[in-house]
Amino acid sequence: xxxxxxxxxxxxxxxxxxxxxxxxxxxxxxxxxxxxxxxxxxxxxxxxxxxxxxxxxxxxxxxxxxxxxxxxxxxxxxxxxxxxxxxxxxxxxxxxxxxxxxxxxxxxxxxxxxxxxxxxxxxxxxxxxxxxxxxxxxxxxxxxxxxxxxxxxxxxxxxxxxxxxxxxxxxxxxxxxxxxxxxxxxxxxxxxxxxxxxxxxxxxxxxxxxxxxxxxxxxxxxxxxxxxxxxxxxxxxxxxxxxxxxxxxxxxxxxxxxxxxxxxxxxxxxxxxxxxxxxxxxxxxxxxxxxxxxxxxxxxxxxxxxxxxxxxxxxxxxxxxxxxxxxxxxxxxxxxxxxxxxxxxxxxxxxxxxxxxxxxxxxxxxxxxxxxxxxxxxxxxxxxxxxxxxxxxxxxxxxxxxxxxxxxxxxxxxxxxxxxxxxxxxxxxxxxxxxxxxxxxxxxxxxxxxxxxxxxxxxxxxxxxxxxxxxxxxxxxxxxxxxxxxxxxxxxxxxxxxxxxxxxxxxxxxxxxxxxxxxxxxxxxxxxxxxxxxxxxxxxxxxxxxxxxxxxxxxxxxxxxxxxxxxxxxxxxxxxxxxxxxxxxxxxxxxxxxxxxxxxxxxxxxxxxxxxxxxxxxxxxxxxxxxxxxxxxxxxxxxxxxxxxxxxxxxxxxxxxxxxxxxxxxxxxxxxxxxxxxxxxxxxxxx
Length: 687
Description:
The protein is of the alpha+beta class. The chain is built from 14 helices and 27 strands. The strands form 6 sheets. Strands 10, 11, 13, 14, 15, 16, 17, 18, 19 and 20 form a 10-stranded mixed β-sheet that branches. It has a 5-stranded mixed β-sheet with strand order 3-7-6-5-4, covered by helices on one side.
């Protein structure tokens, strides 16, 4: 018989009410069928719950026409159409539940643990049967799912082989014949067990004498053949049916036992911890994420201090009137008026103040060395609030620091907070602040007393400064910034004109630009003259050594000129000193310039925290190993005019009276350099 011959013929349509009536009436039998077909590897507790779940999920969702149930058959196989439909669904789901899970395939619903019914704290299982029931359960566990279904249909449902084949085919079994053969093999084993002679008192079977023994040994193929006769197989089936209907396989008559109490206690503790963590995470996720909340990207409040809350109130921000600065006796940040199109945006100002006081983990924050990053001690002064380069920017000042807050116009991620120390700023130190950095460019917000702005390339001293326009709020046009450049092919500076002259400001990667000066430490001037620009053109690339260091001003001055050996011309010695806003951490660079103006300065020595080359100690001594154009090597040294004599020791020995020294040396030679001041004090060179 082919599989096509096993397709059941349709019967009349099945209503949901008809199927529900059959399910309720025969619920215990349907659950028993599901329990027997499910794989024993699930464990008895899960088999019980899964069997009930499969039966409860077997109702049709709507009126079913032509269900996959057998049509009219002989009387012994006839069943109610509603019951036949539900039984078919139960078999189909039970067979799916027994399929192994595949790694890349999504599990089907029947393969997952049931959501309902669900029991907490108890393990449920049928009553324990005898040895025969245990032996049958073990034999059923060796069968495949379709084999167990065939055995149950034929034994528990008392269906003929043809009807079993048709029901299995309707349930989706690929090879019903093989499933029926498995059931036959189990019947054969039960037949052998049922036909065996009983044991005598001595423990052996009575195999010799008596009608039973003779009939078993007759070899006529009736009851003693190895394959089992029809009568013997029927006896085995009757025995199996009785066992299938026992309490061992009744998932409706259950026993209850507690689960592992110690493990349950551990799980309860872990559950409490997990719930607490979930609540914390939920609170964090509930913070503003799809838009700026009341405090934006600020962290939670840490205090309810009235003074601290007043400092965070946008209504109390200090706003200077534009008419104040022309009549003021001082020119610094304290007289800057509030400018920008968003000075009235209280929500933006509230976010800026809150993030300043409590920057959250998502805020990108930076501060110049030595700058406190705590909240303001009182209401700060508002300098600017507006949109610049696709970001809402707020500039604030509290007398000690300038603070820049920025957030993107589109979206809520990427808030930034920058601090720069600006205490003691004069009119030039407060001439400009960086308001935006974008795409390698920089924009400045200039002071109200700045009359003109332009961009000057330090590396091209002969070029004229390029005019740099400003909007009505004092924000300049963008210009290329050297702060993040990888090479030194161009070094733009901001040149401003105020009421007393021209100033040159350099962007060193901080909020406040550094002032560039030229001249002796006791009387430096702004580096805007021809001589200053020529010297800075050869030393500008050395400014990378003081980048992002909290620099307030950088002064370069020529402390010596030296005739070079072999008639190579006149060398120049420069000292560059970078002063910081915090007063400490100043850096000193000694540089040597050969006669050719196209050659950049060579770094001879550097020092940090030294008073040399400054107002307190204007003396400086440095040396360098130099190669003449003809190939000879020399140790060259020079000191400020205060030195009376110089000498070298170590690998190269030499001495000279006066602040200049040139000694013949070998390539790669190293020497120790020292000098004597005019008052007899010994001094060592910068290193």
